[in-house]
Task: inverse folding
């Protein structure tokens, strides 16, 4: 490693954990998984210009690189423990690089501290700006939240609100008055600083029949659950949880489109047998994120959406529309 | 994930392992570390144009992305088990992409099968061509080969031969007659298909006092061992193991420079107390890679090199030279 970025990141993200037997600085870290726990592992990459716009604050990038991975652990009901960071940076003047690395470390470590995640290894290379983070967490055997357990009759929920991040991305550059600017700042915070629903994932263990985090967009991710579980799902657009910030910056139809198809929400979408729905909602309300019932699991395949007016919608290139007249279809 | 590359990679790299409780296809993999074992984890990135030249065969890239990581596990004396792959690919026509992915999977899986490594998770994104691989292995508590255990009086060894990969990279494009072309093909194979010294690493457990894999170049990596151990080292250039392919394509001084400073060898460099040197050499000879004594650990700091003529050398911009007259130094 030609430059000591990982050392610097380590200093800024230090976390005392007894289960880290040897941290950064050797060929590999040595870690002890607690007896009786399975290891949950995931990896995700952020590329400049693809996953975050050029010019995004380094601290936001550092936060988000860890957040999208912790969101995967949350969706499994795992308790986060360790992270690896592979950082690719273009050649640049030393002081610019130091500012960038300090910013990345600040955002990464802020979130890492909240979840007691230790950075245990990494790699720094020259190249186009990108970060790959691998995370490790623990889950008792048999208790992980998988995608394949949803059953017809289960109710479908999501935590928090949907569509904010996608709206924040689309409205990033547009000019605005002061009130609108405040709303947009809220949306951009959802885009740049997603909060992985770790506590919600833990609360869902033993209760949700299936779970996924909403990264590609609600319908795409719910479709993954349906495919894995061999079921279909119906979503009621009128039930979608929309923030006042979102509703303040676009009309209801547009807000619905963001909520259904916009990605980067990092909320949890999960299925629960009706008998457990009440206790789950109460618990997630106590955790602060809440959970909103948005539909149900049905026999069959695929995800269908009922519009605000009760009519079934179909996807269009720019969003969702009523089914056209059957005779008009090719 | 917009395209199902990881599924395809999984199909091509399938490995039955009882300790994989849930593989690719959910938000995270679920894994069981054997009782009484510590987990060794490492991550490394390869970027096109930085770690491999544009035009490198996809199968070579897939092999190398896993090899450089298994080399880290080898240097810890860990038994490889699982890998994660984060793959970033530029937009390209579907058939070109399929060829690329098939090639990557072929090389990756060839090496994975040799070491029973299961691909348990991944991520595919759009962007400049790069691969990050994270690997996981097992090692009994207290038996890992660390960098910080070298003591003055220990002998320094390397497995295999040094300098081939660096020479292969430098001579990649040059024209050559048929005999020379064969030699260069051998050097390029060392560059493109490094063989992680996993069995050697296991054989060194409980015997080597310190170990590292040679990725940045012998002297740079041995210096890491010295820093971590609080010692110095002396290397004897006359003892460096050089392949006939290397000696056939350059003179002795150039070959020495490649061996001392060229990276990408992925041999193991390790320190052993003299009393154990004989048995270690015999065991590594039986494993096929052999081990050559190249120097010794001394009190102090830093790495010094004695040239073929017995005089101490100093680094220059292009390689190594005799110490100039003391009075000539600034």
Result:
């Amino acid at each position: 490693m030609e430059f000591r970025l990982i050392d610097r990141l380590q200093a800024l993200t230090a976390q005392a954990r007894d289960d880290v037997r040897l941290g950064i600085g050797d060929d590999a870290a040595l870690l002890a998984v607690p007896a009786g726990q399975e290891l949950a592992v995931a990896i995700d990459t952020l590329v400049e210009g693809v996953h975050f716009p050029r010019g995004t604050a380094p601290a936001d990038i550092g936060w988000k690189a860890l957040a999208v991975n912790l969101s995967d652990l949350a969706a499994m009901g795992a308790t986060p423990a360790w992270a690896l960071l592979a950082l690719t940076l273009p050649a640049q003047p030393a002081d610019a690089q130091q500012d960038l690395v300090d910013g990345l470390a600040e955002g990464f470590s802020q979130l890492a501290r909240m979840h007691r995640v230790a950075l245990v290894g990494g790699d720094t290379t020259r190249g186009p700006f990108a970060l790959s983070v691998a995370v490790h967490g623990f889950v008792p055997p048999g208790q992980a939240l998988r995608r394949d357990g949803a059953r017809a009759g289960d109710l479908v929920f999501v935590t928090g609100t949907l569509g904010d991040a996608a709206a924040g991305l689309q409205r990033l550059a547009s000019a605005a008055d002061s009130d609108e600017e405040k709303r947009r700042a809220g949306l951009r915070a959802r885009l740049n600083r997603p909060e992985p629903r770790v506590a919600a994932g833990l609360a869902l263990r033993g209760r949700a029949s299936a779970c996924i985090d909403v990264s590609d967009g609600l319908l795409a991710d719910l479709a993954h659950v349906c495919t894995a579980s061999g079921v279909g799902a119906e979503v009621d657009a009128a039930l979608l949880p929309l923030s006042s910030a979102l509703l303040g910056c676009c009309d209801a139809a547009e807000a619905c489109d963001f909520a259904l198809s916009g990605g980067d929400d990092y909320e949890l979408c999960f299925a629960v047998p009706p008998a457990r729905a009440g206790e789950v909602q109460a618990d997630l309300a106590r955790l602060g994120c809440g959970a909103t019932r948005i539909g149900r699991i049905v026999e069959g395949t695929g995800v269908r959406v009922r519009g605000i007016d009760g009519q079934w919608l179909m996807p269009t290139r720019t969003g969702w529309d009523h089914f056209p007249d059957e005779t008009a279809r090719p």
